[in-house]
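Here is a protein:
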Amino acid sequence: MQPLPSIEQPQFTTLSAFALRLVQAYTSWRDPRSGEDAFAYFRHSPRHTGDEHNLRATLIREYILPAFNYAPEQIEYESQERYDLVLWSQHQHDRRKIAIIETKSSSQRNLANIQRRTETPAEQLERYLSQAGLYLGALTNGDEWHLFDFAVGHEPLASLSLIELATLLQGSSTPVAVEQQLADQPLLRQALAVRCVRRFRLNSRCFTNAMTNISKGELSQVIQINAQLRTF
């Protein structure tokens, strides 16, 4: 089966290579104010407050999103509609919004489970997506990442702590070493797989390549998730 013309091919073909790229980007970041790396920055107790603009402008826009192969022209910072970050398709002949990222202060934790009498962060993201005519978005405090597809449901499709991932992969500098560390982390592998699939709009061939070395059981679960998802 030949890939559809509109499908974007991934620059990495295994989950371990994707995880390594993501961690390398994350650990390369330094807080512009203190010079701290991600480990030191997110280790503060209590965590920083009022830092969402800083995280949005530097860590997320300049490090994490490029790790997903988003080019600068695909990333709109603080849009006219007052969305924190808007992601655009890369095709010039069909340029359109594809997702919204809502950022929060690093002091706010368990973003997907916050309960309030007023609007929760997840409900805020859903409202923004509805206004924009979209269904795909992410909620993050710089460490936690929760991927939502509100066309499927209100629970995150994938949740991931980049600090936990970076801690796990400390000292791993090759995809082979990363694969060894991820071998006993099925939930983490599934979260990474869902994110890889949603970013690259994979067809059956690309999806299989990207899921190389995932066990049959894990691959089956991710395929079931992917089968529910609409393409961008």
Observations:
- The beta strands are 75-77, 85-88, 97-103, 136-140, 144-149, 158-161.
